[in-house]
């Protein structure tokens, strides 16, 4: 399996004078809907596409319910979902209030089989120009939006 990546430049936020560095960034090749996933799942199982959709829809309803009930949702070798909160601190334990919670986000930790698949990934560099109209430091001319896959 090949994952495509492009190159992005980032500055050092703690030292704005430092030279920018280039980093690989995973490039999306598209999106898949639940219905698009149901087809291949039904082909490798004994369940129809309609039944697969029903089960997936139910799973997507139950997972948030279980998370908000305070449970970690374990999906076997696929991985686990849990909730993580960001909050502001208080001076004492007695002063802590729910209103200090600023963000509640779902988190996912890949399981053993998922990690095995990720360990086999190969990478392919994709040349992506800057968005149209953005000036490059070297030419100070806008680049055209285009993609080219490099060997």
Describe this structure in words.
Helix 1 packs across helix 2 (49-68). The chain folds into three domains: 1-29 and 121-151, no CATH class; 31-71; 73-114, no CATH class. A hairpin with a 4-residue loop joins strand 3 (73-74) and strand 4. The protein has helices at residues 34-43, 49-68, 112-119; strands spanning 2-10, 21-26, 73-74, 79-87, 101-110, 122-128, 147-149. Helices cover 25% and strands 30% of the residues. It has three helices and seven strands, in the order ββααβββαββ. The longest helix has 20 residues, at 49-68. It is flat and about 55 Å long. The protein is of the alpha+beta class and 151 residues long. The two termini are 16 Å apart.
Low-pLDDT segments, ≥5 res: 132-151
**Which radius of gyration do the C-alpha atoms yield?**
22 Å
The helix/strand order is EEHHEEEHEE
What is the tally of beta strands?
7
Count the DSSP helices: 3
Structural domain count: 3
Major sheet: 4 strands, mixed
Helical proportion, percent range: 25-40%
Dominant shape:
flat
Which strand order spans the largest sheet, edge to edge or round the barrel? 2-1-6-7
Mean pLDDT: 86
**Class from helix and strand fractions:** alpha+beta
């Amino acid at each position: 399996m090949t994952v495509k990546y492009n190159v992005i430049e980032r500055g050092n936020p703690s030292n704005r004078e430092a030279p920018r560095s280039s980093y690989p960034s995973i490039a999306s090749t598209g999106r898949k809907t639940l219905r698009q996933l149901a087809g291949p799942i039904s082909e490798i199982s004994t369940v129809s596409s309609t039944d697969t959709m029903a089960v997936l829809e139910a799973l997507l309803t139950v997972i948030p319910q279980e998370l908000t009930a305070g449970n970690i949702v374990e999906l076997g070798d696929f991985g686990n979902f849990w909730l993580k909160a960001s909050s502001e601190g208080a001076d004492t334990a007695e002063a802590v209030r729910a209103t200090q919670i600023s963000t509640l986000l779902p988190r996912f930790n890949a399981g053993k089989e998922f990690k095995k698949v990720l360990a086999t990934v190969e990478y392919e560099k994709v040349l992506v120009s800057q968005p149209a109209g953005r000036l490059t430091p070297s030419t100070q001319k806008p680049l055209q939006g285009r993609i080219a896959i490099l060997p």
